[in-house]
Amino acid sequence: MNESKILEDKDNLASPEEVAIDGYNALMNGEDKVISGLKNKLSVAMANISTDSMAAHRMAEMQKPVTEK
Questions:
Q1: Which of 9, 25, 47, 57 has most Cβ atoms within 10 angstroms of its Cβ?
Q2: Angle at 27 between CA 25 and CA 32, to 5 degrees
């Protein structure tokens, strides 16, 4: 996972501070789950409207090591 395509561009990752703040605010508001960041929200929305096999294929592609095509 440390060499996956998801981690290839570190600038596209959410900052740990923002994720922690979102999680803390959700906890204080009594929410049982939170999705931090627009990109993650879009990914979840796409997974919810696509078939399981399409979502699994998309995730597999994102998690492939950078050295694989």
A1: 47
A2: 120
Per-residue pLDDT tens over the stretch 43-62: 899 989 999 999 999 888 88
Q: Is the pLDDT of residue 69 over 70?
A: no
Per DSSP, 14 falls in state P
User: Would the pTM count as exceeding 0.85?
Assistant: no
Q: Which residue matches tokens 């900052």?
A: 15
Burial class of residue 43 (count of CB atoms within 10 Å of its CB; 0-12, 13-18, 19+): middle
The SS3 call for residue 19 is: helix
